[in-house]
Write a structure and sequence with these properties.
Layout: H1 2-29, H2 32-94, H3 100-103, H4 114-125, H5 138-147, H6 149-157, H7 165-182, H8 192-223, H9 225-233
Helix pairs in contact: 2-8, 4-8, 5-7, 6-7, 7-8, 8-9
């Protein structure tokens, strides 16, 4: 109610101001015909003016909202990689028997440009992700994912996730892998058929995870050099990576 009264007062003030200004113009010119003609001309242009202003304002607002959504989304993605994603990449890459085929292309450097990230994505599309379950410590992986289950659930519940289908798909794949591991009592005595099934679940997470990691690294490179520096120094594909600046 208070806002409605304020709105009415604002409209009334604008109308009174307009009448007063036309009154001053009449006193100065003394020609109501000229004033009326100018008024009709201004009135005729008003719809076009409103249209132009609306389009511009709408575009500006949409651009600002989109930028804010992207910022919030990448903050969520950054939280995921700092708490879970980077560690998972370390787990999976060490269980990938063909990792040397792409490892050198994933050693992101500070002088990388857009074409370098594009080249990596092209190579990843042609890469046959592979996981050998025997190279994974499944119990350790299960405990790690169980500890982060609550934080991952909060990420999935975040409304900004609706803006990023591929990352949401990654989170769902991680949840599925977590459930698969938690529903097995003894991960050391699994038959080959079940290990093959788990390899498929891990490979699904692995392929989605690498893609999102490369995209996030490119975002940091373009927007947050200091965050990119740390991510580059803790690159899970670099066996010589160290957070210590040398």
């Amino acid at each position: 109610m208070k806002n409605l009264k304020l709105y009415r007062s604002f409209v009334l003030a604008l109308l009174v101001t307009s009448v007063l200004l036309y009154g001053v113009e009449y006193l100065m010119l003394g020609d109501s015909g000229t004033i009326l003609t100018a008024f009709i001309g201004n009135l005729a242009f008003l719809p076009i003016n409103v249209l132009l202003v609306s389009i511009i304002i709408h575009r500006l607002i949409n651009d600002m909202e989109r930028k804010n959504r992207i910022e919030k989304l990448n903050m969520v993605i950054g939280t995921f990689f700092s708490q879970t994603g980077t560690r998972l990449l370390g787990y999976f890459s060490e269980a990938d028997p063909e990792i040397e085929e792409i490892r050198k292309y994933l050693l992101v450097k500070k002088d990388w440009e857009k074409k370098d990230f594009t080249d990596v994505n092209r190579r990843l599309k042609n890469y046959e992700y592979a996981i050998t379950a025997g190279l994974l410590d499944l119990e350790d992986l299960r405990d790690f994912l169980e500890q982060r289950n609550t934080s991952l659930l909060r990420l999935l519940e975040n409304p900004v996730m609706l803006e990023h289908e591929t990352f949401t798909e990654l989170l769902r794949a991680v949840f599925h892998l977590t459930e698969e591991l938690l529903n097995r009592e003894d991960l050391d005595e699994l038959p080959p058929s079940d290990l093959e099934h788990l390899e498929g679940d891990v490979k699904r997470v692995y392929s989605l995870l690498v893609y999102e990691w490369v995209a996030y690294m490119e975002y940091l490179k373009n927007n947050y050099p200091y965050l990119f520096s740390l991510s580059m120094r803790t690159n899970p594909f670099d066996r010589e990576a160290s957070p210590v600046v040398k």
